[in-house]
Amino acid sequence: MVLLGSIVNALGIIVGTLLGLLLRRIPEQMKQTILIAIGLSVVVLGIDMALKSANFFYVIVSLVVGTVIGEWIRIEDKLHQMGSMLERKLGKSQNGDIAQGFVTATLIFVVGAMAIVGALDSGLRLDHSVLLTKSMIDGFTSMVLASTLGVGVLFSAIPVFLYQGSIALFANVIHAFLPAALLELLIAELTATGGVLIFAIGINILGIKQIRVANLLPSIIIITVIVVVQYFN
């Protein structure tokens, strides 16, 4: 079953979130310390990912162009509008900032090499081992995130499934049209660009400065275009 790994990954996030919500009764001071620990970990993860780039200039260009597009179409505002709608139904006081939890968790779970490589393995060889490993990591991470950011983390399971599932379903097409060298380069640059976004999330979690991270998302598409065009020129 091609989508098995993606399904298990989404379920891992859901189960982890539900367990995390049960832990929300821990003392507020402990929550704040946990949140700082998460923020520091996310910052380090982002730096590690960003260093995977073979040409960081491409990453810079993609971030600048992607941010202009994201600010123009106001992705962050739209996500917060959706979060506000859900909060009215679920109750913000009990479930936290849904938009923040959703955006933070989605970027952490979606951006990275494991999501791409694992989905490709699922589609090409029906080997789900990478995504099954990722589901355990994401499950634990979602539990920790949900204990501080709330139920919004649960909704990240939807884009994770759609993103990884799409790659798995079209893996044969991707493999046929993209040379192995290009695919390897693309994964590295996507990981690096995503690492900058992950770093920005860590800054948000630590409360150093509020960055509209969702408005940086188009940079993922821009870096893909840049790498592909550069490779064939």
From TrEMBL:
What keywords tag this UniProt record? Membrane, Transmembrane, Transmembrane helix
Q: Which domain of life is it from?
A: Bacteria
Question: What would be one Pfam family of this protein?
Answer: DUF554
User: Would the keyword Transcription regulation be found if you checked this record's keyword annotation?
Assistant: no
**TM region(s), chain numbering:** 6-22, 34-51, 57-75, 96-120, 140-162, 192-208, 215-232
Q: What is this protein called?
A: DUF554 domain-containing protein
Recorded source organism is: Metabacillus litoralis
